[in-house]
Structure formats: C-alpha cells, structure tokens
Fold this protein.
Amino acid sequence: MWARNRGVFMWSRGVVIPLITRALNLTGGDLRLFSSPWSSPGWMKDTGKMEGPGKLRKGLEEAWAKYYVRFFEEYLSHGIPFWATTVQNEPTSGSLPSYGWQTMFWNSTGERTFVAQHLGPVLAASEASKNVKIIALDDNRFWLPMWANEVYSDPIAASFISGVGVHWYFDALAPVSTLRRTHEAHPDKFILATEACAGSLPPFHGPAFGEWERAEGYAKSIILDLNNFVGGWTDWNIALDTEGGPTWAKNFVDSPIIVNATADEFLKQPMHYAMAHFSRFLRPGSRRIQSSTVDVDDERVMHTAFVFDGQRIVTILNTVNVEKEIAIEEVGGTAINVNIEPNSITTVIWKKQ
C-alpha cells in the first residue's frame, strides 16, 4: 500500500501540481479548489482494502483526520491553497456490496460525529487547513434534506460545515425542489453541485463526439440547480482520452475536452461550450435574481438570470428544434427582443439603463 500511495504522490508532483500551478497563474490565483477523498488507506478500513465497501476502523478517526491536514500541507508547500474539502465522496456507496471503486461508508450521523469531534478541530488547528471549508454529503440529492438536517443538528458540527455537496446521477429520483427546501431550512449554508459527467450509464458509456444532447443535459442541470439555490456546478473531468479514460476501473465516460494524444490534438465537445455560457459570464460574486416567464414552456425553453457589476445576465436554453422569439423585459428598465436559434444556448448581457 505504501508503494502504491507513493506512486500516486509522485504522479501528483509530476503531473497534477504543475497543471494546477499553471491554472492558478492563468487565473491570477482566482481559482477555488476543493478536494474529495474516496477512501482511507486500506489498513484503516474494516475490510483491509481501499476498493469496495467498508467503514473506517474504530479508534482511527483522529489519524484519518490528520491525513487531510497532510494533504493540504503538502499542496500548500507547492503554493497551492485549497478552498474546501468534502468529507467523503459518495459516502453511502461504502455500503454497497458490489461497489468496485475506492470508497468508505459514512451515514449522516457518523459523518456529523466525525466532523464535530475529529475532522473539524484537526483542520482548524493547522495553519495549512484552518480556512478550508468542509462540505458534507457529496452524494446524490435524494439524500436531501435529511442529510443536511442531521449534520446541522449538532451545533458543533454545524459550526465546522459550510455546506453540502450534491451529485447529479440520480436526479430523476428526487425533484429539484429538494434543493430549494434544503436551502430554506438552512439559508446560512451553501449547496454546491460537486460532481457530474455524461456517458457514465449504459448503454452509452464513454465519449459521444459532437453530441449536442449531452451539452443540453449539462445546461439544463446547471440552470435548474442555479434556480434552486445551488452556488456552483462541477464537472468530474477536465479532459479524457478518446476512449473516455484513463481509468483503472474501466469506467469510461465523456468529458468537455477529449485528447487524442496520438494525433497531438484535442477536441472541445459541445459540453465545453455549454459550461462556458456559465463559467465565462457568471463571475464570482454574481447574484441570481428573481425571473419568470409568460407564454413560454418552462420545460422546453429554460432560463436563469443574474446581476454582476451593473450587468444583467440571462442565459436561455432552447431544447426544441424551432426558433423562438423571446422578449426580455426588466421591471422598470430595459426591454430586449431576441431570436433564439433551435436547440441552442444563448446568453444575453446588458447594462441597466
């Protein structure tokens, strides 16, 4: 296990850290990074291995919390600060007998106790991690609002936890109003979409080159999340190869950027441009504003509206194969007529008059 972990660390130093450093330089340091552990070392789990289900062995909570600190110390020594960390990636997957990847089980009460008694105090005691925010859940949204209610019910845990993270994989099992209800119950805590990717479910595993429907799926998810008090949206992968890897677990998926190393070229998928409508125009500090539609099918023509630095920003997703003429009217302000192309994403920006 030590050799394997050492190999991962050397890969981080040789590949990951230089890439993050370059990204920090390109953004002038305006980059929020969060981490998400998938498993403790195998010897810490009751099964003795990282892959597959299992729980943290009792009595090792403090030692495991210190692993987080060492992670942040090492990255900070390379000039890379972290904004946040989740407690555990998809903690409920650690109870699934057939789960093949690295994981470790927490339920909501166990996570609450771990944060209150171990992770929160240990992170707060280190200069490298005292400002790192803790994100609970980091799992599918059908666990809300129950999970949030549980972890925030302990005042000590709540003082350490800044928000909850949600994944998009089983959104059909829980209405998007779940997010709104969670926000209304805990308005001082954020909700962050911490993982999404296309091509993860059969029969369409892996990349679909030039596939518009996947871009539409991204935009729809982002708009619905933003309109229900989610503060950000995260793709699982920056770039993958033409097979949808590399992945030791053979979990081939899609990505906004596909790299063809043999040809020394990369492809920007439609998902890349879908995300750009939000990441490019909704800058940190943007605030969503109330908006509504008249004589428009909200299920097929969707939108979200924001303000930033005197600008009004409206992003519109047209999911039908028909051009739409849209009138955007600001109360007491500007009126704009826009033709929205079939099957398209359009962002309209104007200054208040």
